[in-house]
């Protein structure tokens, strides 16, 4: 724990991004308080059965990233926790984290932030005036030296432009934001629009009790299973430093071809009506274990985009139609905005595009960098370790270590990321905050000196070096070096496989990780073919 720091920091939100931000603020000795709108921690992982403007998981939601890749860097999950936790177990992990580090002492529950404005002396001090309503309904204003916005980006439903005839449709139309569970959908004909993770989950769940489910997709998608070969969690296989380094030197078409071939071995995406025109790394993937089975059973049928609604039905762009539709669930994603900060005029968002250095610091406020956004990224992998690393970057900057570059460099970094996204991804509002998990967390780690000197590590601790380079890029790796090292980091890294196995069979012994050799073998063969051809 660092010596006390008299600078005052406000954290908005006690969810999966706010909690690690609070934890690291305390490590730095900052005078910190967190305002949470509800009466509990957990954010969207705190399931809310009633209709509300607040974000919430569905009753049956299971995380699509594994527990070890989702954990915070100094709080490994219990071995008996499922590798892919149900939302109630995920919530328990967050509550345990808060309890373990006594974060509740610094959280003011039922406190609503109404607005955040630059203080009168902002140009000189970088301070912010925050107007809020406390748990008794009394309004206050307080000046803070810094503000962290940790309220997430799944709060504002994104509704597509209305289809022709939609206003005359007699059935019910909701957004997946409002979908809680299957009750009320029994024996009905349901159309789910959108094949992202929410759309796939809703379609699969309802296919068990509805009369028929139709899943609408404009362009198709590549579907990943949570489980890879040998039963390994897919994100633990894909997010490895050696693979990241390999992808940086291998042509993109080769990486795409190898992964697409592997996905098609599970099921032929073209035969199932899902094969998109874009390559697998050209869009955010859909993670769903059951969708191909439900399609094979006929309880989910794939349809192209909607052409128009009729009074009771829907006509699709291929000319097919459903004469009677009871329910439509728009699983069309979310928009984000920063209306709290000077009524949205300070951090402007246009079609989910926003100018934030490292998706954190507004480039228009680069004179002080005292306000930042945490968790506004969309990786293939978990957001939580990235949010934690963002918080560490902010705390370094906030406590005077000046890790953020000049305004010109910040703007160049934003433009560079936008250009790379535009070249790689399908044009879509959901592809504005995409990051590659390993590359991005490495980039942040370098800002605060938490990256590893691999040459030195190979000399001093070759077994650990092997684990961190060829094994999954678990968050504990970034507490070996840098500010606030964690003395248990090495042990946490070396015991990952044990905790993964314990979740499914606590009587087995850990076997060698063959998935590394498997992937390396596939890529080696691909490289040999490439060498022969060119």
UniProtKB/TrEMBL annotation:
It is a single-pass membrane protein. The keyword Metal-binding does not apply. It holds the Pfam family FMO-like. Keywords: Endoplasmic reticulum, FAD, Flavoprotein, Lipid metabolism, Membrane, Methylation, Microsome, Monooxygenase, NADP, Oxidoreductase, Phosphoprotein, Transmembrane, Transmembrane helix. Its cofactor is FAD. This is Flavin-containing monooxygenase 1. GO terms for molecular function: flavin adenine dinucleotide binding; N,N-dimethylaniline monooxygenase activity; NAD(P)H oxidase H2O2-forming activity; NADP binding; trimethylamine monooxygenase activity. InterPro entries: FAD/NAD-bd_sf, Flavin_mOase, Flavin_mOase-like, Flavin_mOase_5, FMO-like. It comes from the Eukaryota. Broad spectrum monooxygenase that catalyzes the oxygenation of a wide variety of nitrogen- and sulfur-containing compounds including xenobiotics. Catalyzes the S-oxygenation of hypotaurine to produce taurine, an organic osmolyte involved in cell volume regulation as well as a variety of cytoprotective and developmental processes. Acts as a Baeyer-Villiger monooxygenase on a broad range of substrates. Catalyzes the insertion of an oxygen atom into a carbon-carbon bond adjacent to a carbonyl, which converts ketones to esters. Active on diverse carbonyl compounds, whereas soft nucleophiles are mostly non- or poorly reactive. In contrast with other forms of FMO it is non- or poorly active on 'classical' substrates such as drugs, pesticides, and dietary components containing soft nucleophilic heteroatoms. Able to oxidize drug molecules bearing a carbonyl group on an aliphatic chain, such as nabumetone and pentoxifylline. The keyword Phosphoprotein applies. One of its GO terms (cellular component) is endoplasmic reticulum membrane. It is found in: Endoplasmic reticulum membrane; Microsome membrane.
């Amino acid at each position: 724990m660092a010596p006390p720091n008299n600078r005052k920091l406000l954290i908005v939100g006690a969810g999966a991004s706010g909690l690690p931000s609070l934890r690291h603020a305390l490590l730095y000795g900052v005078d910190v308080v967190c305002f949470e709108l509800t009466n509990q921690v957990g954010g969207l992982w705190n399931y809310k059965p009633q209709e509300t403007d607040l974000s919430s998981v569905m009753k049956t939601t299971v995380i699509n990233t594994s527990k070890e890749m989702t954990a915070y860097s100094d709080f490994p999950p219990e071995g008996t926790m499922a590798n892919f936790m149900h939302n109630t177990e995920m919530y328990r992990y967050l509550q345990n984290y808060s309890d373990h580090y006594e974060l509740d002492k610094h959280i003011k529950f039922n406190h609503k932030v109404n607005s955040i404005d630059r203080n009168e002396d902002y140009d000189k001090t970088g301070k912010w005036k925050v107007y809020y309503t406390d748990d008794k309904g009394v309004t206050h204003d307080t000046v803070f030296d810094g503000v962290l916005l940790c309220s997430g980006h799944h709060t504002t439903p994104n509704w597509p432009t209305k289809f022709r005839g939609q206003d005359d449709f007699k059935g019910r139309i909701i957004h997946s934001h409002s979908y809680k569970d299957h009750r009320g959908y029994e024996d009905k004909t349901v159309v789910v629009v959108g094949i992202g993770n929410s759309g796939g989950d809703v379609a699969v769940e309802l296919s068990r009790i509805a009369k028929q489910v139709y899943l609408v997709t404009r362009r198709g998608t590549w579907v990943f299973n949570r489980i890879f070969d040998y039963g390994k969690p897919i994100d633990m296989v894909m997010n490895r430093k050696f693979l990241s380094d390999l992808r940086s030197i291998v042509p993109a078409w080769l990486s795409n071809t190898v992964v697409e071939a592997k996905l098609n071995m599970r099921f032929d995406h073209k035969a199932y009506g899902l094969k998109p025109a874009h390559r697998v790394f050209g869009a955010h993937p859909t993670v769903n274990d059951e969708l191909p089975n439900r399609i094979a059973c006929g309880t989910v049928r794939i349809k192209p985009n909607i052409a128009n609604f009729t009074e009771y039905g829907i006509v699709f762009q291929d000319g097919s139609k459903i004469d009677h539709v009871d329910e439509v669930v728009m699983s069309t994603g979310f928009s984000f905005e920063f209306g709290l900060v000077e009524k949205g005029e300070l951090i402007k968002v246009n079609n989910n595009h926003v100018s934030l250095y490292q998706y954190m610091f507004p480039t228009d406020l680069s004179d002080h960098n005292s306000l930042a956004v945490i968790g506004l990224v969309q990786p293939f992998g978990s957001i939580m370790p990235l949010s934690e690393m963002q918080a560490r970057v902010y705390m370094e900057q906030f406590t005077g270590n000046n890790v953020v570059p000049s305004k010109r460099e910040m703007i160049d970094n934003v433009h560079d990321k936008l250009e790379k996204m535009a070249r790689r991804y399908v044009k879509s509002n959901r592809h504005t905050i995409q990051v590659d998990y390993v590359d991005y967390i490495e980039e942040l780690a370098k800002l605060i000196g938490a990256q590893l000197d691999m040459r030195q590590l190979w000399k001093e601790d070759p077994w650990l070096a092997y684990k961190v380079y060829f094994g999954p890029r678990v968050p504990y790796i970034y507490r070996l070096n840098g500010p606030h090292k964690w003395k248990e980091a090495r042990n946490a890294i070396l015991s990952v496989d044990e905790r993964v196995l314990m979740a499914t069979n606590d009587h087995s012994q850990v076997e060698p990780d063959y998935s590394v050799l498997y992937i390396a073998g596939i890529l080696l063969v691909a490289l040999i073919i490439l060498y022969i051809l060119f």
